[in-house]
Amino acid sequence: FAGLSLYFEDGHDDLDDFGFDDYGSECDGIRITAFLDAGQDNLTPLGRLEKYAFSENVFNRQIVARGLLDVLREFSDNENDFISVMETVARMSEDGEPTVRAELMEQVPNIAMFLHESQPNFPAAFSRYLVPIVVRYLTDPNNQVRKTSQAALLVLLEQGLICKGDMETKVCPVLLDLTEPSSDDDYKIEAVAIMCKLVTMLSKDTVEHLLLLRFCELCSDARLFQVRKVCAANFGEFCSIVGQDATEKLLMSKFFDLCSDSLWGIRKACAECFMIVSNSTSPGVRRTKLSPLFISLISDQSRWVRQAAFQSLGRFISTFANPSSTGLYFKEDGTLLEVPRCPFDRLGLGEIKGALWLALCCRDSPLSIESSMLQERNNNPPTNNEETEQTDENFNSFHYWRPPLPDISEELEMLKDQVPLQNQAAGIKEGEKEEMVVLEDGEIEAKEEMTMNLCLCLSFRMCLPAQVQVLSAALKAAQQERESEDTEGQSESQPPEDGNGEPDEEFSQNGGTAEEEQTPNEPPQQTTDSAPIEELKETENVIPQQLLDQYLSMTDPARAQTVDTEIAKHCAFSLPGVALTLGQQNWHCLKDTYETLATDVQWKVRRTLAFSIHELAVILGDQLTAADLVPIFNGFLKDLDEVRIGVLKHLYDFLKLLHAEKRREYLYQLQEFMVTDNSRNWRFRYELAEQLILIIELYSHYDVYDYLRQIALTLCSDKVSEVRWISYKLVVEILQKMYACGAHDLGLNFINELIVRFCHCPKWVGRQAFAFICQAIVEEDCMPMDQFAQHLLPSLLSLSSDPVANVRVLVAKALRQSVMEKAYFKEPGSAYSDELEETVMALQADKDRDVRFFASQDPNMALMDTAALI
Fold first, then answer.
1. Domain Phosphatase 2A Regulatory Subunit A helical spans what residues (predicted)?
2. Within a 10 A sphere around the Cβ of 147, how many other Cβ atoms?
């Protein structure tokens, strides 16, 4: 554009023969703002900008639009000039040529970021000049301009450059106008799409007050199926933003309509977002309404809908997981986290009941407990009502499983009058107490229930919300255990129950009514297959049986033929979530399915299981892992490399879950990872070295020396440099293990082996590796410095005269940046200080420039990566 600038200065405005295609990619390397340079027109830079910004030639205006960011940079120092430029931009936005408007809009995000970083008055300037352009272009008649404006708007929102006020007063009103029933079809479809993309970047209040009702109307748009399809695809985002209350009151009916839409593409979109919608509802709605709705999708007449439903089935089942009983839950990104538990979790059910009775019937009466709670509330006054309301709005039933407990002030007042009766009941013998339960029509039982409810309410104030749910589950289970024991005394023929109360608790929390909760406690009829019936009830209380049956059928070959050829892979992918939901006690429901998947003929299915077996081990615990997962894990170790890499990447995570005896058995098999189907698969060996660095802590120093040492030394001689360099770090970790455990003899043996194998290696890469290992040993403090000076330093110094410059470079770096910085070698009269100084001086005079550089540079400088010298 230097030539173009001269062309401009000669007074030529007719550039009709020039175009963007004539310059191609060369435009990127030429200063676009060259037209601002002084010429023969005697105009100021601002005058020249004005001239070309409103030139009759379209190409001139395009060049100005493309170079606006550079123009602003040149005029940003002067506020008046800056305002003039911004006003020029505002006038240019009204250009009648669509290509000019599109060029201008492409620069808006870059201009906004520049203003944000450099202009103190950015909010005012951006809101006054740029936001109106973006909003106006949303209704531009040219399709390219509209698309560019929509993309720019999303970028501005992602960067947080548009304030809430502008969104509510400028952007959202335009979107609402464009989505009116009378709006043009093309504009309406585009506006719906951009509105759905914006919702995840807006606040909950903005979405609820401005967009929610319009979104509900759009979900029922009978004329444009494209609108309904966009709404269905983004339905989950709306639900997650507005929360449970608005989802169930306003959105749920619309979701049912979309799931039964006449177009299969809309029903498919609903199936794909089912998990997010489920997470935004209460357990009761999830069980009684969403579950039957999902069954209808999974049996849809369209294969594509069924395919999407089966892919979402495992994720939907995982939303039934109860953290209070499993102790674990999956985040939306798939991370497995543990729910914090309160100290009561460590007690048995009987111990919990005893602890609660002891707390109320001895010294600490309810009055004293209440007074202490009041004192605590006085010391820590509650927040205002607005903050409380905000907390309730952010409440997530998926994490905490039940709504906050109600106010118990009235119950406390009632309990004050019952203190003498409770103290009297505390002195009743156990046998007499059981008799009184029968003779007094459950009076003592009612008091005990009220006491437990009180303890639960008091604990709610003392524990974190997540902890309270666990305590609540334990208390209800304790009460149900006592009721079942009383029932057993009345009928000797009744089959024994589990006694843990978990099925009742889970059923209750998943939406069962009070009458339904009592159903499992009723004496069942005597049948020969009573145990399977109990198992069925147990799983039914966790998730609807129909969902579980459909999930278990995903391994059926017929499903692959009629639904999806990769349905087994989707089953394997979601299995940890399903296992988490069912819990350890129901693992038997999934065991056969897991074994079937583990032997699937498709290696992708086995690979999926291999990558998640460590997560499943966390869910099942050590006993089930040893019994059911270890055999499958052993099979994966002998599988294809594509499967083995899954267990290798999480080898440490799995082994640390095993008992020491079982874990030690794998020491003999680690060597097998050195053999791969393809010797060029160097990343496999690299991953092995990384895992061994972690695994070192799981074994004794004797095992590390006997088994891991040889693997490490072999990897250090790998043909691929990346594998060698990570293996050098493994060698350092092994040496650190020896000295940390006090096994100095083993450490010295290992050092001698390193000297023989690397320092005296005929290949220069081995000698270079020795220098790197010595530097890492010093930096990591793997061993006492006197031991290093005695056993390793002489060999390191001997390499300072190595014939290969790359070796001398690492020697210089090790000495200058690491060894000489240790206090041990700086002490006056050190036996090695003179020798070190002489060696470094010799390296500073080396014939190789890189050697001189590293021998002379400041130790804190790291101007060159060591790996680049290989």
1. 89-318
2. 15
Task: Determine whether domain 201-320 maps to CATH 1.50.40.10.
Answer: no
CA dist., res. 327 & res. 589, Å (int): 20
Residue among 278, 302, 279, 303 nearest 291 (CA): 278
According to the model, what pLDDT value does residue 300 have? 93
Closest CA to 859 of 824, 819, 811: 819
Answer yes or no: are the C-beta atoms of 230 and 250 closer than 8 Å.
Answer: no
- What per-residue confidence (pLDDT) applies to 339? 58
DSSP string, 727-788: HHHHHHHHHHHHHHTT-HHHHHHHHHHHIIIIIT-SSHHHHHHHHHHHHHHHHHT-S-HHHH
Q: Give the CA count within 13 Å in the CB-facing half-sphere of 613.
A: 38
In sign, the C-alpha dihedral spanning 490, 495, 498, 503 is negative
Spatial separation of the C-alpha atoms in residues 821 and 551, rounded to whole Å: 62
What are the tokens at 717?
A: 């001689």
Domain ranges of the chain: 1-162, 201-320, 340-377+396-487+501-509, 543-658, 677-759, 764-870
Contact 800, 852 (CB under 8 A): no
Which residues have CB under 8 Å from 830's CB, separation 6+? Answer: 824
What number does CATH give the domain 1-162? 1.25.10
Domain 764-870 has CATH 3.40.50.12780: no
Residue showing tokens 């979701």: 255
Task: Look over the chain and give the mean of its residue pLDDT values, rounded to a whole number.
Answer: 75
Produce one character per residue of 264-276: b if its CB has 16 or more CB atoms within 10 Å, e if not. Answer: bbbbbbbbbbbbb
| pLDDT tens, residue by residue, 514-551 | 333 333 633 333 333 444 445 555 666 788 999 999 99
CB 716 within 8 A of CB 724: yes
Higher pLDDT, 548 or 370: 548
Instruction: Report in angstroms the alpha-carbon separations of 30 from 3, 35, 657.
Output: 10, 12, 61
Q: Which has more confidence, 26 or 633?
A: 633
Residue with tokens 């499992």: 520
Cα 710 from Cα 731, distance rounded (Å):
10
1-162 and 764-870 in the same fold: yes
Q: Is 446 helix (H, G, I), strand (E, B) or coil?
A: helix
Q: Which of 258, 284, 283 is nearest to 271 (CA)?
A: 258
Q: Is the pLDDT of residue 498 over 50?
A: no
Bridge partners of 338? 328
Q: Give tens-digit pLDDT for 428-482.
A: 444 433 333 333 344 434 444 444 443 434 333 333 333 334 334 444 554 555 4
- Whether 474 contacts 344, CB under 8 Å: yes
Distance CA 824, CA 629 (A): 51
Provide mean pLDDT across the span 317-338.
Answer: 67
H helices present in 260-365, as ranges:
264-272, 274-279, 283-285, 291-298, 303-318, 323-326, 349-361
- For residue 593, the SS3 value is helix
Q: Six-digit token pair at 748? A: 């010295």
| Exposure letters 361-388 (e unless 16+ CB within 10 A, then b) | beeebbeebbeeeeeeeeeeeeeeeeee
**CA–CA separation, 159 and 110 (whole Å):** 11
